[in-house]
Structure formats: structure tokens, C-alpha cells
Write a structure and sequence with these properties.
Helices cover about 85% and strands about 0% of the residues. By secondary structure, it is an all-alpha fold.
């Protein structure tokens, strides 16, 4: 029965992740319909990310002791409201709705991770977290293409109308089937802030920042890299992106089960090493399409396989305050994504090519690898029994 609960939580992550990812794919349609520039429409993405990064930890902090089921339902109620408001064709309202969606999605994701850990036996936490991550990768594979197709068949507002209805149904399913789950153990503000000052937690947050920054340096401009460097047409790129999404889904599942079998540290070190190496090799083989596709596949595989390990490692470092540390981690992820996209864009402006983005990405991920080694050494000194 626990597996059914995990799948229910994962379906909710699929809906919330689709709301985040789909906008980038239909940005030009929204801009045209609202008679605004692409640059201004891009602020819809910024509003979502900033709200997610800045306010998720605050809300999670003040609701950390609440029943997890209650927080899930409240976050979905807010998500339903944000999705419904998104259908109103007014830029200011849509901008506000994106902030609402960012907050509600962030709270739902963090709570889903924490809830999955609570209803799973200790030896199966990695698999549970891997399944939750699968909801995000499934949004890339299915949610975004379906959203784009709906835009072509109907209009972009229909996407958010459908998400609003589905999220309401999701809330009803959670209300009916999920058990009550206790929140984090009571802890004073002083204890919580002491946790935030932990060198181990701080280094893990820095690891997340480097890892996601490196990912963003490449992935934000991956289709451009495929077009300019690999000389693929739009159809081939779409097919390859679908294949990469499937690779990510498989990797997330394997990453979760791998954590249960080998531990978080081994999986993180292995995936970060492969990740950095593949990025650094990518610009060296631009004339060899098959090798490039294999390297990009390795990048995607290692990225998604390492995700469950990092989330699980956070939970193991602070089981009594898992919601708080997971919310801080998701905030750091979004800050890293923004930093990577910005630095990648600056590099392209400087060099007039996307060729060198993988090298910058590889260096940043390698910094993450170094941070991981440092964090694990700190953790071993303080808590030798931690896996």
C-alpha cells in the first residue's frame, strides 16, 4: 500500500512540474497573445523561480510541524487557484499567478519528499525518493509535449484550466487515500537556525548550487548546441530530447534503488564524476555525432541518477528537520538554475558560440564533486554511522 501512496504523491509532482516547465515551450505564443515582447514574457519564468526559491523555505518552516497530508492539500488548493488565475489574459494577473504556482509547487514538492521518507521503511527511502523524482522527469517527457500540443489544438489557457481541474482531483485523491503523517519533531527557532549553521548542511547546499548551475549552463542552451554543433534539424532534436527524457526517467528509478543498495555517498561521487567528465569531453567530439549523443546521454543519466541520492542524503543528515533542509535545497536548486542560465548566456555573448558551454558546465560540476568530497569528510568526522 505504501507504494500506491508514493505513486499518488508522484502524480502530484508531475502536475506541478508540468506547470513549471511548459511555459518555456509556449513562451512565444503567450507573448504574441498578450502583445508583449519575448523578454517581458520571460519574466513569467523568473517570477515562478524567485517565488519558489524565496518563499518555499519560509512556508515550509512555519508548517513543518503540521500533518503532512494537511500541507499537501493546502499546497494543491493554492496550486488550483494559481492555475485557474493563469487563464485570465492579463499580464499582471498571470505574473502573480506564476508566483502563486511557484510557491505552491515548491511546498508540494518538499512535502512530497518528506512524506515519501516518512511512509517508507529506512532501507527503501532511496527508491521512494527516486519515484518522486520520476514525476519531474515524466513532466519533461510527457507534460511539456502534451502542453504544447494542447496549445496548438486549443489555446495556451486550456493547459492551465486542465491543470486546475486535475490538481483539484489530485487533492480529492490525497484526501481520500493518503494516511495522516506527522510533521517534523518540535524544534525551537534556535535549534532550527543551529541546523542552518551546520557545515555539513551548508556544504551540501553548495553542492546543489554547483550541480544545478552546471546543468543549467548546458541544458538551457542544449537545443542550440544540438542545432549549431551537431547540425540536427528540429525534428531530430525533438526525437533526441524525447529519448533523453526517457533516459532521465530510467536513471531516476535506478538512482533510487542504487541508493538503497550502495548508499548515497557512492552514488553521488560516481554520478558527479561521470557527469563532469562527460561535460568536459563534449566539445572535443563535435565532429562525431554518435559519440556526442552518447556523451549527452551520459550527462542526462548521471544528472537524474544523482538526484534521488542528494535528496536522500539531506534527509539522512537532518531527519528531524527534513522538510526545512529539503526546502532550502530546492531553493538552492532554483538559484543554481538561474545562475547557470545567466553565466551560460554571458559566455555565448563573449565567444559567439555555444561550443564552450560544456567546458564551463563541467568545471562547475567538478566544483560540486569537490564540495561533495569535503562534505562527506565533514560528515564522517561528526557522524561516522551516516551512510
Amino acid at each position: 500500500m505504501n507504494r500506491l501512496f508514493i505513486y499518488i504523491l508522484t502524480l502530484g509532482v508531475f502536475l506541478t512540474a508540468t506547470s513549471e516547465l511548459v511555459v518555456s515551450g509556449i513562451l512565444y505564443v503567450i507573448a504574441s497573445d498578450l502583445h508583449i515582447s519575448i523578454a517581458l514574457a520571460g519574466q513569467l519564468v523568473t517570477a515562478y523561480s524567485l517565488a519558489f526559491a524565496a518563499l518555499t523555505p519560509v512556508i515550509v518552516f512555519f508548517t513543518s510541524r503540521w500533518d503532512r497530508k494537511k500541507v499537501l492539500l493546502l499546497s494543491l488548493a493554492l496550486f488550483t487557484l494559481g492555475s485557474a488565475a493563469s487563464v485570465i489574459p492579463h499580464f499582471g494577473i498571470i505574473l502573480a499567478s506564476r508566483a502563486i504556482l511557484g510557491i505552491s509547487s515548491g511546498v508540494y514538492l518538499v512535502t512530497a519528499f518528506a512524506a515519501a521518507a516518512k511512509i517508507s521503511p529506512p532501507e527503501k527511502i532511496g527508491s521512494a525518493i527516486g519515484t518522486i523524482v520520476l514525476g519531474f522527469s515524466s513532466a519533461m517527457i510527457l507534460g511539456v509535449p502534451i502542453g504544447i500540443a494542447i496549445t496548438k489544438w486549443l489555446n495556451w489557457q486550456s493547459i492551465f484550466a486542465i491543470l486546475s481541474v486535475l490538481s483539484l482531483l489530485m487533492a480529492l485523491v490525497i484526501f481520500r487515500f493518503l494516511p495522516r503523517m506527522s510533521g517534523d519533531k518540535p524544534a525551537s527557532f534556535r535549534q532550527q537556525f543551529k541546523l542552518l549553521g551546520s557545515a555539513v548542511i551548508a556544504s551540501l547546499l553548495l553542492l546543489s548550487f554547483f550541480r544545478e548551475s552546471g546543468n543549467s549552463v548546458l541544458l538551457t542552451y542544449l537545443t542550440t548546441f544540438m542545432n549549431d554543433m551537431l547540425h540536427l534539424n528540429a525534428g531530430s532534436i525533438s526525437l533526441l530530447m524525447l529519448g533523453l527524457g526517457l533516459v532521465g526517467a530510467v536513471a531516476a528509478r535506478l538512482g533510487g534503488s542504487g541508493v538503497d543498495r550502495f548508499g548515497t555517498k557512492r552514488i553521488l561521487i560516481a554520478t558527479l564524476t561521470v557527469h563532469a567528465a562527460a561535460l568536459l569531453l563534449l566539445p572535443l567530439f563535435t565532429g562525431m555525432l554518435a559519440v556526442e549523443i552518447v556523451l549527452i546521454g551520459l550527462i542526462m543519466f548521471s544528472m537524474f541518477m544523482g538526484g534521488p541520492a542528494l535528496q536522500t542524503h539531506f534527509i539522512k543528515q537532518a531527519p528531524e528537520s527534513s522538510s526545512l533542509v529539503l526546502s532550502l535545497n530546492t531553493s538552492m536548486i532554483h538559484l543554481g538554475l538561474a545562475a547557470g542560465a545567466g553565466s551560460g548566456g554571458m559566455l555565448i555573448e563573449r565567444t559567439s558560440t555555444v561550443l564552450y558551454n560544456p567546458w564551463l558546465a563541467g568545471i562547475v560540476v567538478a566544483l560540486g564533486l569537490g564540495t561533495a568530497v569535503f562534505s562527506f569528510a565533514l560528515g564522517k568526522r561528526r557522524s561516522p554511522q551516516t551512510a
